Amino acid sequence: WTCGRIGAPKSKASQAPVPMHPLLAEFMQTWRKLTPYPQPENWVFPSLKLGGRKPRAANMLVEDYLRPAAVKAGVISAGDPCRFGFHNLRHSLASFLVRSKTDPKTVQALLRHSDVKTTLQLYAHSVSADRMTAQGEVLQAILGRASSGENGLNAD
Length: 156
Hints:
Layout: H1 22-34, H2 58-72, H3 86-99, H4 104-111, H5 116-123, H6 128-143
Helix pairs in contact: 3-4, 3-5, 4-5
């Protein structure tokens, strides 16, 4: 579903099935039962105006659910005019998985990128605390810990 109609995915990688963890599947089944249109032929996030036969517009899902959840989680402030939507979740997922030491090829496959460079260069972002830790580790390796003396330099 894109631009208000069902169409072909934009790439061959986009055509591949997306694995769904059983925990997410259970949540989605519960969610579907709670919607006004729980029938199999209806969309999981149905348009109320269109009787469940078409999905709800993505921008409405963002405004009604995603943005309020981001405000509640402290990701953005209430009333913040910044762009925030589903694409932010892709970047956050990539960053979280890379930071959690998930194999980059696995992250690439989950995001369905054709090239791991796209995943690592455009989607995975470092966290400033991680950069500070890495910098400290390099400095400790170069300068060593001060065991004696006040200048922090090793005697050897």
